[in-house]
Every structure is written in structure tokens, then in C-alpha cells.
Amino acid sequence: MALDPTPGRVFLVGPSHSFEQFASAIDAAFARWDLSHLHTFELSDGRRIGYPDDEFAPELVWLDHTKLKVTKEVKPGEEFTYVFDLGDHWEHRCVVEPEKADPLDEYGTVPPAPAVVWGWGSIPDQYGRRSFEDQGEDYDEEE
Description:
alpha+beta, five-stranded mixed sheet, 3 helices, globular
């Protein structure tokens, strides 16, 4: 889904934070509540990081998101993508800032997991619902 204008978030990500932790932080920051979907990061060199699942897209090499640390795999100035829900393809463009941030200045403490420090834009419901009564875009009354 393309949003205009696009919402965005700025995160602090430390040297001990894994891609799994970063995915969870992104999902929370964008109000994802149905977390039963696969996700993947694709780095600028083409590597894919996510669930090590040999049954889903076995032709792809997936690196384990629980083991890899974000700051070890991406460098300042680099861009990569995060996709939540490989069916609906909620794509996020990630950019590593060229300068390191001081977590004490930006957040007040060193966060135990990636943390949002700034954000903008409207966050849509992941199923397109606008109210409690709305069944969303995937609902079929005849089921």
C-alpha cells in the first residue's frame, strides 16, 4: 500500500539490537496488532534477513533475524528495506543516519531495544478498517 504523504519514524538502534528486535520496534511504531505475518529485511547487497523458514520461498537464502545485529550488518548512510506481511507487502525504507546518535541526548537512557525518538504521518489500520464495525478489506460476507 502506498501512502501519500508517507509516515515515518526515527529509531535509536544500538550495537546489541538484533534485526528481530528492530522488526518488533517497527511493527509497534506503526500500530501493527496482527503479528502472525512473516517479515523480511533486504539489505543493499541483496541479503534477506528474517525468519529462517525453509518452507516459505525455499529458493531464497534467509539469514536468521534473531542472530544478526543491525549495526554489524548496515553502515552509516546505507539504505535497506523492511517488509511486514509478505502477502500485503507493507514496505518500509530504512536509512542509517551518517552520524551516530547519543542515546542519552535523544532518549534519556540507553534503550534495551530499538526505540522511536521521532515520528510523523498517519498510520492506517493494517486491514483498512476505519471503525469497530468495519470488517476490513479482506472480509467476505458469504463465508
